Amino acid sequence: MFNDLIDFNDLTLLEWENLFELGLDIYDNPSKYKNYCKNKILAALFYEPSTRTNFSFQAAMIRLGGNTIGFSGTSATSVSKGENLKDTIKIVSNYADIIVIRHPNEGAAYAASLYSKLPVINAGDGGHLHPTQTMTDLFTIGKLKDKKMTGLDIGICGDLLYGRTVHSLLKAFSLYSDNTFYFISTPELRVPEYFIYELRKNNKIIIYKTIEECIDKLDIIYMTRIQRERFKTEEEYKKQTGIYILDKEKLKKSKKDLIILHPLPKNNEIGSDIEDDPRAQYFAQAGFGMYIRMALLIKLLEKPKTQINIQEIKTTGKKCANEKCVTNTEKNLPDIIKKIDGKSCCAYCETEI
Ligand code: NCD
User: Fold this and answer.
1) Ligand 1 centre and the CA of 83: distance in Å?
2) pTM here?
3) What tens digit of pLDDT does each residue of 149-208 get?
């Protein structure tokens, strides 16, 4: 059983299927669950902007009978006075029962989980992962496709390099097989290999330059915005915008039961002429997110967390070269390595060492 949710793949397929079923039951019978988290407190620590993830987590806890504390932006907290992540987590651990954290640095949620006696949920760590968006995405696909999770043709379009929702979704789909993925992006914004090496084993991956080339084959198209805040310069970002726009003209060739998903917020990648098309399911998707997050809160609060003994972690002395990795901003973190596809990678951000 998972203690924290840092990466979707912390769950086995069976654990995910149980969570999915619980989410369905909560969706159908919400009042049955209204006291499941009575007297529990969720701490929502949002170091980065959020609308859906933050509100849906807080609404989830309130609908389960619990309460919430937290911040949206660090300007009114001790972080602005120089408090490090470890200290903030240790402090919050005294006041709440579960922590949800979104942070600009890759691996920050994992770092938080090392020091927290409470379950930690990763609500987005820089351009790395966003596992609860993946739960939302899979829950939506399961609901709208009658639980069919294999044999699907899935287009993933936009910023596959920095889009953390894309990374988590592709990692998660390695739990299933026989799906075909159509990656549609510029060469500069292709998905890093370490997010898809597991997926490749049982699924097909095809790379396309345009939406037009594959739209007729797709059961699902997952659109994403270009992640402006992750680029080194505004100029580099500008070169990547306005290239992929899904509009009425392109949809003419699509299947009637195509599902258009988007983690949101959307910029200009969804044409205003398809907003009311029944295939556009991204607002329903955002709505489903609250129910699957309710299921996750129930599961993680069911039993006390077994805390990692930080003293026992063997440090390697090898620094991560990824400048966006949390180990480069939080100086007190132990260097930990994990193996991905036989390669030594940073356990926080998964970049090869
Ligand atoms: C996403 C995120 O924050 O990564 N938003 C969300 O949580 N639904 C997608 C994005 O910001 O583009």
Assistant:
1) 26
2) 0.97
3) 999 999 999 999 999 999 999 999 999 999 999 999 999 999 999 999 999 999 999 999
- In angstroms, how far is CA 310 from the centroid of its own chain? 26
Q: Which of 47, 53, 229, 269 to mutate to test the pocket of ligand 1 (most atoms within 8 A of CB)?
A: 53
To test the pocket of ligand 1, the residue of 72, 105, 130, 270 to mutate (highest count of ligand atoms within 8 Å of its CB) is 130
Predicted confidence (pLDDT) per residue in 315-346, tens digit: 888 889 999 999 999 988 999 999 988 999 99
Ligand 1 shell residues, CB under 6 Å: 52-53, 124, 130, 133, 164-165, 225, 263-264
- How far lies 35's CA from each of 8, 252, 312, in Å? 26, 47, 38
- Give CA–CA dist 266/157, Å, rounded: 13
Positive or negative, the CA dihedral 206, 236, 322, 269 is negative
